[in-house]
């Protein structure tokens, strides 16, 4: 069967790895520029076509994929006279792989429906290294017929592909997941810094905590930096972590709930950003807490 034509917007670290994987699997791609020009140029060198704007990209694509940092960025590419919706082909499927606000996703989905297409939300788990090898976790939601239509493509990108319910369910679950992950990571970073302050070894703290029910992959990611000096096991920036925890709080408020637990994690992450650590990786929050405890 002929593979669908894919348009891809957002060639950051994750998006560029996904584009590389799709090209490895033989898909034809149209791509849209990113501030890091080298990733666009690398895709073009392999045969991708660069679109002038999102409208032109959509008009050339059966599936439009977005992998962007914020809901505002997704909205800016989707709407307007040069946006995806303006150029959408009848029957096309739009997939938002980013971590967006569910309310924004549902609003855009209605606009895509009105234009004759279908929107799916499909936030991602794992890292760009997993994306390179087609081993992502993909939390997809939306129309089941559209999901079945694009499932072969998602299977080329992900090891574990979930369908989680109506549109917005994927982004909802991803925000809950990231709230829990970043709250855990921030707590573990403080725990290592407190061990320093108390004069006990980080390795000893880890040995005791990991021997019981507290042990988790997130603990190991933090230990990889706090003890072994490698922050890349959790290659997720402090600024992105703060954004996701903030989105979780916004989502909760939209549901008529007030999150209690996320407030501390968000305060810590925002304080780290104010301290000039926005581009640090989350495991390096250990350094932030160590500095603060040393004041």
Quick recap:
By secondary structure, this protein is an alpha/beta fold. It has helices spanning 13-24, 37-45, 54-59, 71-78, 84-87, 102-114, 128-132, 144-157, 169-198, 202-210, 217-226, 238-254, 261-274, 285-294, and strands spanning 6-9, 29-32, 49-50, 63-66, 93-96, 118-121, 124-125, 136-140, 158-163.
Characteristics of this structure?
55% helix, 9 strands, 6-stranded parallel sheet, 295 residues, alpha/beta, elongated, 3-stranded mixed sheet
Question: How would you describe the overall organization of this protein?
Answer:
The protein has 295 residues and is of the alpha/beta class. It contains 14 helices and nine strands. Strand 8, helix 8 (144-157) and strand 9 form a beta-alpha-beta unit. Helix 9 (169-198) crosses helix 11 (217-226) and helix 9 (169-198) packs across helix 13 (261-274). The termini are far apart.
What's the arrangement of secondary structure elements?
Blueprint: E1 6-9, H1 13-24, E2 29-32, H2 37-45, E3 49-50, H3 54-59, E4 63-66, H4 71-78, H5 84-87, E5 93-96, H6 102-114, E6 118-121, E7 124-125, H7 128-132, E8 136-140, H8 144-157, E9 158-163, H9 169-198, H10 202-210, H11 217-226, H12 238-254, H13 261-274, H14 285-294
Parallel strand pairs: 1-2, 1-4, 2-3, 4-5, 5-6, 8-9
Antiparallel strand pairs: 7-8
Helix pairs in contact: 9-11, 9-12, 9-13, 9-14, 10-11, 12-13
């Amino acid at each position: 069967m002929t593979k669908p034509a894919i348009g891809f917007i957002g060639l950051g670290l994750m998006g560029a790895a996904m584009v590389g994987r799709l090209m490895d699997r033989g898909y034809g791609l149209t791509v849209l520029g990113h501030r890091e020009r080298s990733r666009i140029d690398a895709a073009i060198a392999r045969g991708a076509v660069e679109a002038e704007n999102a409208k032109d990209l959509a008009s050339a694509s059966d599936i439009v994929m977005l992998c962007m940092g914020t809901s505002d960025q997704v909205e800016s590419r989707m709407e307007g006279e040069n946006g995806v919706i303006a150029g959408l082909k009848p029957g096309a499927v739009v997939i938002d792989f980013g971590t967006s606000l569910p309310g924004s996703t549902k609003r855009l989905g209605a606009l895509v429906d009105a234009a004759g297409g279908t929107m799916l939300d499909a936030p991602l788990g794992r890292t760009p290294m997993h994306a390179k090898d087609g081993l992502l976790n993909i939390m997809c939601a939306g129309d089941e017929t559209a999901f079945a239509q694009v499932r072969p493509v998602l299977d080329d990108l992900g090891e574990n592909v979930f369908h989680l319910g109506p549109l917005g369910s994927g982004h909802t679950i991803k925000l809950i997941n990231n709230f829990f992950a970043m709250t855990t990571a921030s707590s573990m970073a403080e725990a290592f810094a407190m061990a320093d302050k108390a004069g006990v070894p980080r390795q000893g703290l880890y040995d005791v905590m990991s021997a019981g029910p507290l042990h988790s992959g997130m603990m190991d990611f933090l230990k990889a930096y706090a003890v072994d000096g490698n922050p890349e096991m959790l290659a997720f920036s402090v600024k992105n972590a703060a954004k996701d925890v903030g989105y979780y709080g916004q989502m909760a408020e939209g549901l008529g709930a007030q999150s209690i637990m996320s407030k501390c994690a968000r305060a810590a992450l925002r304080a780290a950003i104010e301290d000039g650590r926005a581009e640090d990786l989350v495991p390096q929050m250990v350094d932030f807490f160590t500095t603060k405890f040393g004041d």
